[in-house]
Specification:
Number of domains: 1
Number of strands: 3
Structural class: alpha+beta
CATH superfamily: YefM-like domain
Distance between the termini: 36 Å
Strand order of the largest sheet: 1-2-3
Order of helices and strands: EHHEEHHH
Oligomer: single chain
Strand content: 15-25%
Shape: elongated
Helix content: 40-55%
Radius of gyration: 19 Å
CATH topology: YefM-like fold
Length: 92
């Protein structure tokens, strides 16, 4: 489970956060005014990303985390536009 903390708590508990990450290997998301701004990850995860061991969608999966509603809304808008389009046949 990913932990999410506001930056004020993260500053106050940095040592505790680092220990937790070291032992649990889980990431911690830092927020500022409710917006996700940073992630603290275990060194192993960082090294695998840095060395290119994780690529493509596997690497990008975290970038879209928490955006399920926005993605669903965009998909709905795209399908509605396709249905209204009459200059070409579209099979849905």
């Amino acid at each position: 489970m990913k932990k999410v903390l506001p930056i004020t708590k993260a500053k106050a508990k940095l040592s505790e956060i680092v220990n937790t990450i070291y032992y649990t290997k889980e990431e911690v998301v830092i927020t500022k005014k409710g917006k996700k701004i940073a992630v603290i990850i275990p060194i192993e995860k960082y090294n695998s990303l840095k060395n290119g061991k994780e690529e493509g969608l596997i690497c990008a999966k975290g970038a879209l985390a928490g955006m399920e509603k926005e993605i669903e809304d965009m998909t709905h808008i795209i399908y509605e536009a396709r249905e209204k389009e009459n200059s070409r046949e579209v099979n849905l």
